[in-house]
């Protein structure tokens, strides 16, 4: 599997995040009488040949190029409103590894920023889930939390009762991040009160699935908490299930736990602990799972940290995507802390969280 697939996946995420920042926080200004004209009317590359798709509402331009294109030195031809100027100017080469901001200035001095992004993509690939978390609550179109059905239904694990639809809404959104929260007070009983956000879509393995999540544990955070990013199918009647995990452990902020189950019972699985290529799990990182029929690979910020190629334990699926936050008990010693305790008094509640900036799932 080529590592440059990472570029293909991360760029749509960055583009959508930047679009939201530009449209929701304001990328420019205009006057109410309509005399200002600060627009990009066309944005193209000659080599490689690519015509930009212009979003006039969000003030953004997207150009698609073939997978493997060198995007560090591309020269655009830009047309803008009559009498306006643009910086950087047309005909000047730019590095489009990350989105580039172009500032258009109208004759009357009013300005408008445009976010220009270049995405590498192969013809056989399609984005089947993309969420940059706008609004104030995680979108019910894409996500849900579990519904409690009976004791032992999987909504309680470790020392944690997971929020359920009977008494909780979907997680809140803050500053374009889904907040996967954990409280030390549980209003429904004596335990920690965690969150398990689940995709409404179930992802089936065809040629391949690529899951990319940008997230971090929110500091300060005590020992004894796990933030999960994982694909999962509930156990069947024989108690066997599929699962592919990233687990962020507050006990060891410089270490990432990956795990995999292929038609296996719940339990230890096949865990591996790896060091972060750089930084800590309290920093934003881009976590990626590449799930193929003959290989599963885990990447952090484009760096391969683990790959499994044996048919067992490679899952066959289908699986849902989960984002969760919980407190384990002593049966998970690497993540457990005896110093972290829940409270039975609501005035003593503490809240810890994982911030999820964006999620993209690609099928091919």
Residue share in β-strands: 35-45%
CATH topology of the largest domain: Jelly Rolls
- Secondary-structure element string: HEEEEEEEEEEEEEEEEEEEEEEEEE
Structural class: mainly beta
Measured between the Cα atoms of the first and last residue, the distance is 13 Å
Determine Rg (CA atoms, Å): 23 Å
Mean pLDDT: 88
| Main sheet record | 9 strands, mixed
- CATH architecture grouping of the largest domain: Sandwich
Q: Count the helices. How many? A: 1
Helix content: under 10%
Q: Uncertain spans, ≥5 residues at pLDDT below 50?
A: 1-35
Summarize this structure as a short list of keywords or feature phrases.
Immunoglobulin-like; nine-stranded mixed β-sheet; mainly beta; 364 residues; Jelly Rolls; 2 domains; eight-stranded antiparallel β-sheet; 1 helix; single chain
What would you say this structure looks like, in words?
The protein has about 375 residues and is mainly beta. The chain folds into 2 domains: about 5-120, Immunoglobulin-like; about 125-364, Jelly Rolls (Sandwich). The protein is built from 1 helix and 25 strands. The protein has one helix spanning about 5-25, and strands spanning about 40-45, 50, 55, 60-65, 75-80, 85, 100-105, 110-120, 125-130, 145, 155, 160, 175, 175-185, 190-205, 210-215, 225-230, 240-250, 255-265, 270-275, 285-290, 295-300, 305-310, 320-325, 350-364. The strands form 4 sheets. Strands 10, 11, 12, 15, 17, 18, 19, 20 and 24 form a 9-stranded mixed β-sheet that branches. The longest helix is centred in the first third of the chain and has 21 residues, at about 5-25.
């Amino acid at each position: 599997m080529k590592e440059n697939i990472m570029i293909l996946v991360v760029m749509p995420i960055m583009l959508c995040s930047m679009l939201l920042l530009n449209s929701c926080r304001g990328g420019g200004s205009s006057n109410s009488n309509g005399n200002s004209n600060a627009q990009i009317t066309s944005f193209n590359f000659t080599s490689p040949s690519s015509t930009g798709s212009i979003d006039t509402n969000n003030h953004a331009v997207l150009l698609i190029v073939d997978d493997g294109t060198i995007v560090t030195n591309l020269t655009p031809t830009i047309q803008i409103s009559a009498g306006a100027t643009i910086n950087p100017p047309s005909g000047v080469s730019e590095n489009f590894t990350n989105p580039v901001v172009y500032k258009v200035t109208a004759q009357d001095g009013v300005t408008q920023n445009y976010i220009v992004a270049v995405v590498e993509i192969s013809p056989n690939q399609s984005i089947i889930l993309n969420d940059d978390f706008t609004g104030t609550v995680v979108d019910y179109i894409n996500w849900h939390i579990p519904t409690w059905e009976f004791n032992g239904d999987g909504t309680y694990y470790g020392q944690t009762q997971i929020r359920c639809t009977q008494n909780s809404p979907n997680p809140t959104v803050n500053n374009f991040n889904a907040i996967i929260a954990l409280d030390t007070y549980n209003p429904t009983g004596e335990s920690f009160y965690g969150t398990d956000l689940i995709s409404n879509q179930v992802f089936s393995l065809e040629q391949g699935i690529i899951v990319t999540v940008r997230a971090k544990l929110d500091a300060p955070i005590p020992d004894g908490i796990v933030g999960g990013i994982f694909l999962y199918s509930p156990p069947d009647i024989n108690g066997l299930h599929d699962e592919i995990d990233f687990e962020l452990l507050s006990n060891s902020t410089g270490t990432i736990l990956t795990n995999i189950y292929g038609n296996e019972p719940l339990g230890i699985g096949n865990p591996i602990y790896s060091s972060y290529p750089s930084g800590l799990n309290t920093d934003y990182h881009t976590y990626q799972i590449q799930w193929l029929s003959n290989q599963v690979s885990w990447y952090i910020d484009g760096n391969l940290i683990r790959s499994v190629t044996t048919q067992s334990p490679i899952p066959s699926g289908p699986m849902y995507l989960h984002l969760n936050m919980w407190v384990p008990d002593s049966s998970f010693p690497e993540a457990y802390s005896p110093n972290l305790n829940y409270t039975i008094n609501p005035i003593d509640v503490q809240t810890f969280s994982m911030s999820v900036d964006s999620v993209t799932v690609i099928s091919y």
